Amino acid sequence: MQKQRVSLLDAAVEIGCAPQALREHMKKGLWDLGEVVPPDQGSKNYRYYVFRRKLDRFLGKEGEEE
User: Fold this and answer.
1) Which pTM was predicted?
2) Where are the alpha helices (DSSP H) in the chain?
3) 27 phi/psi in degrees, rounded to 5
4) CA 12, 13, 16: angle at the middle one, nearest 5?
5) 18 Cβ contact partners less than 8 Å away, ≥ 6 residues apart
6) Which residues of 37-59 are buried (b: 16+ CB within 10 A; e: fewer)?
């Protein structure tokens, strides 16, 4: 099964928070919305992947029809 991804900005809008707050909550492990990939060697930027199924579960939309 393919995991449908949602942009971090779109996820933040759906949740109603700032994108930076979403990044911080995911990085700290407070919100399980997808994956946080540490920076590669020589880089300092983390990558954030938000998955639709996890976002819907977080928002209480898990059983809703699409």
Assistant:
1) 0.85
2) 8-15, 19-27, 52-58
3) -65, -35
4) 80
5) 12
6) eeeeeeeeeeebbbbbebbbebe
Cβ-based neighbours of 14, under 8 Å, separated by 6 or more: 6, 55, 59
Residue position matching structure tokens 């990558």: 47
Extract the tokens encoding 22.
């979403």
Which residues, including other chains, have CB under 8 Å from residue 56's CB and lie 6 or more apart?
62, 64
Both structure tokens of 47: 């990558």
Residue given tokens 């919100």 in the structure block: 31
Helix (H) or strand (E) holding 33: none
| Helix or strand (DSSP H, E) at 47 | strand 47-51
Query: pLDDT of 6-56, one tens digit each?
Result: 999 999 999 999 999 999 999 999 999 999 999 999 999 999 999 999 999
